[in-house]
Amino acid sequence: MSANPQAGFEIKAYMQRIGQQARAAARHMAAAEAGAKNIALQEIANRIEASADQLQAENRKDLEAGRANGLSDAMLDRLELTAERIASMAAGLRQVASLADPVGEISDMQYRPSGIQVGRMRVPLGVIGIIYESRPNVTADAAALCLKSGNATILRGGSEAIFSNQAIAACIQYGLQQAGLPANAVQVIETTDREAVGELIRMETYVDVIIPRGGKGLIERISSEARVPVIKHLDGICHVYIDDDADLDKALQVTFNSKTQRYGTCNTLETLLVSESIAKEVLPPLADMLIEKGVELRGCETSCNLISDCIAATDEDWDTEYLAPILSVRVVKDMDEAIDHIERHSSRHTETIITENYSHARRFLREVDSSSVMVNASTRFADGFEYGLGAEIGISTDKLHARGPVGLEGLTSLKFIVYGDGQIRE
Questions:
Q1: Are strands 296-299 and 326-332 parallel, antiparallel or unpaired?
Q2: What percentage of the chain reaches a pLDDT higher than 70?
Q3: CB 235 within 8 A of CB 216
C-alpha cells in the first residue's frame, strides 16, 4: 500500500505513482492463474471475518463523524457495517472465488475459406478506477471482481468511510500477499482530497475505465469531466406496474418488498403504477400495509381518492429517486399508459410487471427499455449477488460496454484470435 499522503503532499504526483503501479500490476494480473486469484479471495474473506470487531470499531468512527456532519439516515444506513454485512462481504468474496474464471475463455472459433481459424478470447480490461460513496462493502466487492477478472484496480471511497475503507484495504493487502500476487493489484487511495478524483478520471495513460458508484451529483460530475470511458448509472427510479390480470396476493407482497426491504438502494421501488381496472381492489389494502410500515404515499388524483392518507404528487415526484420511505403512486388506464410513463420517467434501471397474463408479460419484457425487466418479482432482486454474478461492481444503465449488474464478464473484453498453419493472403 502506498504511503499515506500528508499535508502539503502533491496529489498529482501521488496519483501518477498510483497509476504507474496499477499499470505494472495489471500485466501480472492478466497472466495470473485462477488458483492464485482464488487463494487471494479466500484469504481476504477469512481475514475480514477474523477482523470483524476491528472493522466495526473503525466503522463506528465513520458513523460518529457522519452524524456530526449531518449525514441523512439513508446515507448512514449505507455507511454502517453490521455483523450481517461483514459476513455478506466474506460470502461475496467466496462466491466470486467459486465462479469460473472468464479470462482466457475462447469462443466462436470458425474456419475461414483461407484455412485460418478465427475466434474470440476473453481478456481483462486492464486498470479499473472505481469511485464510490458511503458503502464500505464496495471496497471488498470491487476488489473481488477486479481481482478474479484479472484486472488491477484503483479504489477511491468517500471521505465519510475513510476509516472503514482503510480497515478493509488492510484485509485485501493481506490476502494478496498470501497468494503471492502483486500488492498494487488493489490500491485504495488514502487521501480524502477531492482533487484525487479529478486526477484519476483524467489518467488515460494508466486507467482503462472508470466506474462511479454514488449519488447522482457524483456520477454526473464524473461523466462530464472524465477523459477515461465510464460505466455508470445516474439513479434508480424503479417501477412496479400492477396489471389488469395481476394476482392480488402477488401484487401486495412484491410491491411491499420492492419498497420496504431496504429504502436506500438503487433497486428500491420509487413509483407504483396500477391499472385502473384493479386499482379499487389493490390500492386500499396495499396502502394500509405501506402506511403501517411508515411509508409516505404521494399519488395522482385517482390514487388520493382511493387512499385516505395520500399526498397529492407533483410533477417532480415522478422523476425522483427518494432513497427513503416515500412512494409515488399513479393509476393508469392500461399497459400502454404504464409503458409510456416508464419511458418518460424511468432511469432505465429496473421495472417489474405483476400479471398472470403471459402475453402482457412478454410484451412488457420486450418493450420496456431498462437494464433489468421482471415479471412477478421484487425489484430488489436486481443485484449481482442475486443474479449469481457474485459481488457486483455496480449496475450499468448504459447500453455499452456493459448493461445491468456488472460482474466478472462486464470487467472483461473480447479480442479476436487467429490460428493458422502458414497461410498467406493472396
A1: parallel
A2: 97
A3: yes
What is the maximal distance between C-alpha atoms in the chain? 80
**Which CA distances in Å does 325 have to 238, 296, 328, 347?**
14, 6, 10, 19
Whether 393 contacts 145, CB under 8 Å: yes
pLDDT in tens, 115-168: 999 999 999 999 999 998 878 998 998 999 999 999 999 999 999 999 999 999
All cell numbers assigned to 18: 498510483
Residues 197-254 have pLDDT tens digits of 999 999 999 999 999 987 778 888 999 999 999 998 878 999 999 999 999 999 999 9
Say if CB 172 and CB 186 are below 8 A apart: yes
Positive or negative CA dihedral for 203, 24, 211, 16? negative
Rounded distance, CA 265 to CA 224, Å?
24
Name residues whose C-beta falls within 8 Å of residue 35's C-beta, 6 or more positions apart in sequence.
none
DSSP state of 380: G
Number of Cβ within a 10 Å radius of residue 340? 12
Q: String of b and e for 82-93 (b: at least 16 CB within 10 Å)?
A: eeeebebbbebb
Contacts of 239 (CB under 8 A, 6+ apart): 269, 270, 271, 272, 273, 338, 341, 342, 345, 346, 351, 352
- What pLDDT digit, counting tens, does each position of 64-106 carry? 999 999 998 878 998 999 999 999 999 989 989 999 999 999 9
CB neighbours (10 Å) of residue 311?
A: 15
H helix or E strand, kind and range, residue 377: none
Q: Which three cell numbers stand for residue 158?
A: 468517500
Q: Are 190 and 177 in contact (CB under 8 A)?
A: no
Residue 360 near residue 335, CB atoms below 8 Å: yes
Q: pLDDT tens for residues 284-320?
A: 999 999 999 999 999 999 999 999 899 999 999 999 9
How many other CB atoms are found less than 10 A from the CB of residue 57?
A: 14
**Distance separating alpha carbons of residues 228 and 241, to the nearest angstrom:** 37
Q: In sequence order, what are the beta bridge partners of 419?
A: 117
The three three-digit cell numbers of residue 141, written as one number: 466487492
- For 125, the grid coordinates are 480490461
- Which residues, in sequence order, are CB contacts of 179 under 8 Å at separation 6+? 36, 37, 39, 40, 43
Residue 82 has phi, psi (to 5 degrees) of: -80, 170
Tell me what pLDDT residue 81 has: 96
